[in-house]
Amino acid sequence: MSLPKSLRPCGAYKITVSLLTSALLIPIAAYAQTHVDNPFIGATGYANPDYAKEVDSSIAKVKDADLKAKMRVVKSYPTSVWLDSIDAIYGGSRNAGRLSLQGHLNAALAQKKANTPITVGLVIYDMPGRDCHALASNGELALTPAGLQRYKTEYIDVIAATLANPKYKDLRIVNIIEPDSLPNLVTNQSTPACGQAASTGIYEEGVKYALDKLHAIPNVYNYMDIGHSGWLGWDSNRGPAISLYTRVVQGTIAGLASADGFITNTANYTPLVEPNLPNPDLTVGGQPIRSAKFYQWNRFFDESTYAEALYNGFVAAGWPSKIGFLIDTGRNGWGGKGRPTSASGNDVNTYVDSGRVDKRLHQGNWCNQAGAGIGMPPTTAPGGHIHAYVVGKGPGESDGSSKYIPNKQNKGFDKYCDSTYTTPDGTLTGALPNAPIAGSWFHTQFVQLVTNAYPVIGTQTKTALQSASTGTATAGRPAATKGLTATGADGRVRLSWSSVPGATTYSVQRANEGGAPITVASGLTSPSYVDQALTNGTTYYYKVTADDASGTGAASITVSATPHR
Q: What's the predicted TM-score (pTM) here?
């Protein structure tokens, strides 16, 4: 909802825009830094002071010393800054006392260590007619040509001018581009607002304009939101999504170079890995487990396999092989009491429901999910083609209100945020009750997310954070294996991965159709392996662990390959 003209500080606004825009007149070459393939490597991350204040408010409310300590660890996590309105750029009284964009960038400079890059995460989220398929986070700009013009001149242009200031040349700005916008064009055009977003071309034009303006700044990195596996994982959705994104980005000034990659699971809950369900084609009771009611024939149960499939699809569509993925792990841990460690049952639904760590009532439920926990802490280059695990949405920030709450941000009420609502799929929403409007602090949810974190937040979590950018092993065991890739050939799959410092040997696990994971190789002394005597046309799934005298390190992400002639 636009503010009435009488409430806008028009004079100050015009002066500020003029000053910001002048930064664009400075030659980029005068302050350009090298644009690297993965901005997270060798860098620290910006800890958002606004988020830290929200966490402090929860710390003050709890008495349990262990819970307080875990909250303090989360407070130190780098979390993205949501620029979800024009007012969010300016901060202060215009945005609930939060820092302005310039304020955040200045704070990042203050946090930056000498001779060490720092990443600053921003969420670009003010598309005209935003969130066309839902109601909880409607935006301020109308889905009209006038709304698009405001988006360009009052929002994107001002952000770009701010980021282009040479003062900030040593910051690595990591942008998440317009969550849910293009994914809605893939699946939800039957919703009138999404149909209008598609027919008018406003979503596509908005995304292209944002990429054009932001990519022109050398120290800016753009990652396009691409939903999650429970949204676009099906072949009938994933293929059209790859085609749509490719066409849109090819229409930018720099073409496919405009985007550095993609982010999955933004502000969502889909697990990083489903450890007890590694093979979607495993047969139980005569049916593949991907046919279970929860997955509805979707073969991608988690974000790791989904991201790898997207990578392969985009590269096949002509994207450069250096593109990478981010995964938002802020709320997809699903730990706590009762987290399953195996799967059992004689039919697919029993087997899947017993083994899945994702305890949502339906894979499409997205609002303030009961039982969820914080996932992996921010981690650089964990393996495969993942640039980083990031906290895109700060744990504890509401997805939407449990009932309609009047507000000036034009945020509506979505029934999926009502814990008593039965969805068209016949399940309850799984939403926590008594939630505030989207983006507001939800103390009850934060307590749950910290309590149910997986891995458990503590000293080990902090060590993992500290070792993530250096590649050093966690005390007592080797670091997680990174960089695992799998390539299918005739009757075999070639595996390779990055050497793990301190590791003496490696082990390879494989899952294939009709079988649970088995160890196919151990005692390997080099970071490669060829798995042979395989069946062409069958998809195989692999993980690798590093070993030394102290034990076995954490497993790599799961990758897959299909042998072929």
A: 0.81
